[in-house]
Amino acid sequence: MTSRTTRRVLAATAALLLLPSCGPLDSQVAADAEPTAPATSATPASGHVADQVTKARALLDGLRVAGRAPKTGYDRTALYGQAWADVPRTGCGTRDNVLVRDLTDVAKRNRCVVVAGRLADPYTGRAITFRKEDAAAVQIDHVVPLSLSWQLGAQQWPAGKRVAFANDPLNLLAVDGPTNAQKSDSGPDGWLPPNKEYRCTYVIRFTRVAASYALHVTEPMKAAIVRILDGCSRVDGSPADLAPLPSSVWPYAATFASERESTGETAAGGATPSGKACPASAPIKGNVPDDGGDRIYHAPGTRSYAVTIPEACFATVAAAEAAGFRAPR
């Protein structure tokens, strides 16, 4: 065979090897088809966890560390108001509002009362069927328990702040009843959710509540929170970004507490009203409209003052304005 013929045969053989009908090798198909989505989708989740943990650490570092005060004088109803008061004035009780928020497939008897639903319980990780006739199966937990808050600084709060705290959605979760009973009034140093995947979310929310209400924490509580934050790999929602009820609701919230401070003082320099009357020391009437409109104050001698039923009373116009009330137009 001549060298020219040899070159032609080699060229023809090379062309046959390049024909598309041969296709790629199976291993190459697998390599080309290997999905890249998991790596991409993992980045936002990881970033979200890191963001929430960073915010929680900053909140925790801002909390004062001190021991627990004694529980002396604690009375749930007298100091924190009747259970599930409608502090935000939604027209429904706090318990039903939380059930609507946390349950799925909710059924109601009327506009407010929840009679059935399904709960993905964060504390145990189980699915629970809620029925009104077995209401204790699902309870509303205070993430920071009320008696614990009393020991961590709430003894110095005005009545309205305590009642708002007891009914603040930030501090409330629908959870498995028996598990909530086991928690009792413990902090993170004494109890954590059995569902380990929720523990990071739980301690971040605990920290958010404590920071929102300027509670202090004990050294063991802080150590327990730090330990959980150090191992965080999952955070449900954005607990570090949740906001508390505004302080403007405190004067109205104070009306649900049966025991007032001996001075008669409530939030923002106010005093407790009695029917249509305000005490002589705080004659400015504050009204909160049913439709959620502007809060208005009325001074003695002004139009409608005599017939106005106040939600709060103030010593001065400045105190009423500081509490979020405006002059009538």
First-last Cα distance: 111 Å
Largest sheet: 4 strands, antiparallel
Find the structural class using helix and strand composition. alpha+beta
Q: Count every helix, treating DSSP H or I runs of 4 or more residues as helices.
A: 12
Number of strands: 9
Supply Rg.
30 Å
Order of neighbouring strands in the sheet with most strands: 6-9-7-8
Overall shape: globular
Integer average pLDDT: 82
Fraction in helix: 25-40%
Q: Could you give the order of the helices and strands? A: HHHHHEEEEHHEHHHHEEEEH
Uncertain runs are 9-45, 260-269
User: What percent strand?
Assistant: 5-15%
What this model shows, in words?
The protein has 329 residues and is an alpha+beta fold. It is built from twelve helices and nine strands. The chain has helices at residues 3-17, 26-33, 37-61, 76-80, 94-102, 146-151, 159-166, 177-183, 199-212, 219-230, 250-253, 317-322, and strands at residues 104-108, 114-120, 127-131, 138-142, 172-176, 270-271, 284-287, 296-298, 312-314. Helix 3 (37-61) runs parallel beside helix 9 and helix 3 packs antiparallel against helix 10. The termini are far apart.
Map the helices and strands.
Elements: H1 3-17, H2 26-33, H3 37-61, H4 76-80, H5 94-102, E1 104-108, E2 114-120, E3 127-131, E4 138-142, H6 146-151, H7 159-166, E5 172-176, H8 177-183, H9 199-212, H10 219-230, H11 250-253, E6 270-271, E7 284-287, E8 296-298, E9 312-314, H12 317-322
Antiparallel strand pairs: 1-2, 2-3, 4-5, 6-9, 7-8, 7-9
Helix pairs in contact: 3-9, 3-10
